[in-house]
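Internal tracking record. Fields below are filled automatically when a chain is submitted to the structure queue. Please do not edit lines marked as system-generated. If the sequence contains nonstandard residues, flag them in the REMARKS field before resubmitting.
Queue: standard
Priority: normal
Entity type: single polypeptide chain
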Amino acid sequence: MPSAYNTTERLQLGEVGEDKNFLLEKDYSHTAIPIYEEHIKVNVQSQEFSRASYNLFLKSKEKQHHSVKVDYTDSLKVKPRYLELSIADRVSVINSIMSNENTGVDNYLLNKPDAHLISSISIVFTNEQQNRIQEADEVFVKSFGVKSYALYLYRKGVLIDTIPFSNGVVFKYSTSNFCWKQEGYSAWSIVDIVENDESCPKGTYRSPKKEKSLNQYLRF
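SYSTEM-GENERATED OUTPUT FOLLOWS
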C-alpha cells in the first residue's frame, strides 16, 4: 500500500474527500460519493496482523461501533489476518466520475484541488466474508443502495456474493490525486489518477483553477 494514514472513520474504497489534519495524525472527511454503475476492479491482498495494526483495528472498531471480532495475542503462531483492497482499474473510475451521473462530483473536484480518491484501504470483515473474498476470481466495487458501495465477488464469470463495506472495519487508507487536462478554452477533464506523492504527467494538473488563473495572468 502507498503512504497510508490511520483512520477511525467509516471509509469506502472509491469515495472522495479531503484530509483532516490533527496534531498527531491525519483523518479523512468524506465529502462526495461518486455513483459507480460500472464495475471497478479491485486488487485484494491478505496481510497478517501485527500488534500495531491490531491496536489500530481495536481503536477503529470502538469508534465505528462494530461487532467484527479478531482474537490476537503476540504468542499466536498463526496470526489473524486483514485485507488490503486497492483500486486496480483507474480508467473505469475516471469514466464514471466524468459521466452524467456524477456531474456534481465532477464540479466539486474541479473546485477542490485538495480532494482525493480513496484508492486503498485496510479492512477487517468476518473470517467467513474474508474467505469468500479471497476465493473469488475477480472482485469489483460498485454502488450499492444510497451513497454506499459493496464488493461484488465473481467466480468463473458468475456473481457469487455481494459484501457491503459497512460489514467491515477500516483502520488505514491511502489516497490518490486526480490529474486534469484542458479540453478547449474553459472545459477540463480528468485524464489520469496518480499516487499522492507523484506528480501529474506533463500537460496535466492537479489544480485546474490555479492553472486557469495563471494562464489568464500570463495573457495580460
